Amino acid sequence: MIAAAAPVQRPRDARLLVINAQGELRHAARAAWIDCLRTGDLVVANDAATLPASLHGTHLPSGAPIEVRLAGRASLAPGDVSFSAVVFGAGDWRMRTEARPAPPPLAYGDRIALGPLRAAVQGELGHPRLVALRFEGDAAAVWAGIASHGRPIQYAYMQQPLALWDVWTPIAAVPVAFEAPSAGFTLDWRSLARLRTRAIAFATVTLAAGISSTGDPALDARLPLDEPYRIPAPTAAAILKAKAGGGRVVAIGTTVVRALEHSRGVAGLGMADQRIGGGTRLRVVDAMLSGTHEPQESHYQLLRAFQDDATLARASAALEARGYRTHEFGDSVLIEAALHDGNKLLPGRSKAVTQGR
Question: How many other β-carbons are positioned within 10 Å of the β-carbon of residue 70?
Fold first, then answer.
């Protein structure tokens, strides 16, 4: 597929591939995704705003240049300024991630200067390019330094530097995501109004979406990293109401699927540390609106919880044949969870979900 190389969040020609519960494929304009829903459904989106999580600076013991890409936290608490981070040597987003040089050797206690900030290495996290960092100073000063010195994480397929507003979805709220929960780019106030007029409910969760690529195959195999989330009480109540009425829960993006499936839709704070894939039984989410994902990408594995490999292979071929755009500013897929295994309804799926479209 073709990489979407410009930060245009809702191009007029954006397209949608619909994969229904029976594995049938249909092409449509992306704006038509709401037409695939029905009264009583619940749409859930991630309201996390994106941090400027790429920080350039100097490894003080060696004087070598370094880029730190913040990749994870243990919580959503504002006072938590300890992070996991992927580190690179010289260069920036214009160089393919896979070609970036390694960072200087890092040891426990090494200090890194990142603009106005100083951070200390707290240890390696199972890979030389994944480390724990603790920023020095009070939390307010750390967040101010990240805001003033950082820039959005981006990759070489982009044609221009990203501004922070390029990676904030229209419903962005608390800044906790390390890369954009980009399925949310499909939303705007017009689409939210359409949901309301059709009696389709809307709710949000907050999940600190992590990075999508490190450039290292061994490290990429560990993605997604653990991600903290919050399920608000009104969202949990909306899920119960939708299920009780025979409606479906439609996730806007893979991050929402992770949060809802880990929490089982129960209100509260948690850490999504599970892998969702072909062996996963979905208990909360019935359908997902997402970007297009190629088989080698980590997000593709989550699609296997919705449909079998044969259906996904047909979908990939259709996306390729029609020239769909991939990555965060690309086209979209609306995928419903398969409801049948042969002639037998899958366990845990209500018959009410199979009625109508």
Answer: 24
In whole angstroms, give the CA distance from residue 141 to residue 117.
8
Please name the residues in contact with 200: beta carbons below 8 A apart, sequence gap of 6 or more.
34, 37, 38, 39, 40, 41, 42, 43
Distance separating alpha carbons of residues 93 and 98, to the nearest angstrom: 11
Q: How far apart are CA 42 and CA 195, in angstroms?
A: 9
Q: Whole-angstrom Cα distance, residue 5 to residue 22?
A: 33
Residues 6+ apart with CB under 8 A from 233: 267
Which of 89, 72, 182, 179 has the alpha carbon at shortest distance from 128?
89
Tokens of 251: 């996730």
Count CA atoms within 13 Å of residue 352 on its CB side: 12
Q: Output the CA–CA distances (angstroms, integers) from residue 345 to 21, 23, 243, 253, 349, in the order listed.
A: 12, 15, 17, 25, 7
Tell me the C-alpha to C-alpha distance, in Å, between residue 284 and each of 139, 241, 247, 270, 280: 36, 12, 11, 16, 12
**pTM of full prediction above 0.85:** yes
**pLDDT bucket at 296, cuts 50 / 70 / 90:** confident
Q: Is the pLDDT of residue 172 over 60?
A: yes
Q: Which helix (H) or strand (E) holds 2?
A: strand 2-3
pLDDT (tens digit, 9 = 90+) per residue, 161-170? Answer: 999 999 999 9
DSSP annotation of 281: -
83: left (phi over 0), alpha (psi -120 to 50) or beta: beta
Cα(205)–Cα(196) distance, integer angstroms: 18
Residue type at position 195 = L
